[in-house]
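Before relying on records like the one below, remember that each one covers exactly one chain. Contacts with other chains, cofactors or solvent are not represented anywhere in the record.
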Amino acid sequence: MASSAVKFVALILILVCYARSGRGAEYTVGDQLGWRPLVNYYSWVRSKSIKLGDTLVFNYSPFEDYSVAEVTQFKFIACNASEAIFFDSSGNSSITLRKPGQHYFLAQGHCSDQMVFSVLV
């Protein structure tokens, strides 16, 4: 009977550890610079270990003509946010990465300002 109790406690500990690991990290895109023109987001994303379940937080001025769009690869290449998977222009946008694969982000009309990046999770 004691071995059953030990197995039960071990199972509970495993489940608790698994549940804690399921919570992803939160990354502020661009760190203190935020989501704005002329920031090298490719360098930023390479400096992170972004994983499935993590959340990307985009901080930017809602008074500027900025936005955040998650788009397909085709739309990313064309810098086109129409039919975006996610779109927001509120000034504080959060996206949790719930699907494995490549994720593409851009600010509509600001691709030439380097407000673009992709990340593989």
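The chain has three helices and seven strands.
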